[in-house]
Amino acid sequence: MILRITAPADPKHALLSAFGLSSDRHREQTTPWGTLHLLPQTEGSATTLTCILDISADTLQPVGADFSLARLPVFRYAHARSYRLETHVALALRTLLPLASSEELQLTFQSPQLANLPLLQEIFYPAGWQVDGEMVQRTGDLAQVFHEFTALLPFLDRDRFFWTSTTDWDKWWGEVAPYLKQLPHAQHLQERLEQDKNRLVYPEVQRLSECQDLNAVQAERMEAVDLPAKNAQIQGVVDILRAHEAKRVVDLGCGRGLLERELAKVDSLEEVMAIDVSMGNLQLAAREVGHSGLTGAQAQKVKLTAGNAAFKDHRFRGYDAVVGLDLMREMPDWVRQDFDEVLFGFLAPPLVIIGDGIGAKPIGAFPDEAAIKKWSRKIIREFPFQLETISISPTQFLFLFHRLPSA
What we know:
alpha/beta, seven-stranded antiparallel β-sheet, 14 strands
């Protein structure tokens, strides 16, 4: 789960100070629901806080008391499916609320998980929030705005009654009920809670009992992948990294780990940092690396971690190369706006390899070959890189951006 919070007019950086942060200092907060990574960013008077929650296996507790699920891989199953787990994010953020200041700010909350405009309008708009696409916005006391956001966020999580323990749920309700009961649509929210609870618990328990491991999920995710084309793309990346004698590589959006499996076999590579916004993908990648015949030394090269290609994260600086395969097709518009600056301005490795073009949309998020080439030319105009294009097939390309020696 990733959440991005922006204060567009915050000259004192109050948003960061409220959480004990500075522009060059990130923080990891252990919560009962997993590790919360707080990544700060400043640009002029604007401040941004990116929150990444690594869900803990111990928090994924079914509430169906009549079912015995101890034998089932609850953690792996949950992360391999498309559960959003907004409740866990809300609960984790609430552990930080006492640190918030009384500063009045305009705050914007963005996340791919907020991309449900009718639902946002149903839940947030009657409470006085501005709603637009994948974001909600409110101006007010910083602590109060956070309190309201974490009170309303779980209403977007259609699976909360299954994955959240009754103890956690009761604690959350006790803290937010006084606020919710004052809202004009309080009765609607209450009815929605009861409907969702009755509707979801038993069907989800039944679905869980039908899935013993990741095999079904893995097969489902591979159905739409053109394996010969994917393998050709991966081999192209391996050959390029060998030729450039890269030792440390970052893979942005590792997916199920097919590239990591092959990079681990390259003798000259010492470290492969694989990041993804999806914990489900990271689980699948760990399985791919661990069960593909690699030696122990080869598997140890691969480091899997949660991260996002559009946020300035100091952990991923200083590498010899950054790879992003089929990355553009998955990016929401607001993420793509920051991607260029982060990759080519902030990380700025000696070599960037961008690959796209597998599947029904030949050039991913770009409508055609001309559009992605136009984007590539824009990069070399704005950043100190040279462009080299390698054609793998009529619809597949690898774009190599070489950082200029003077940069």
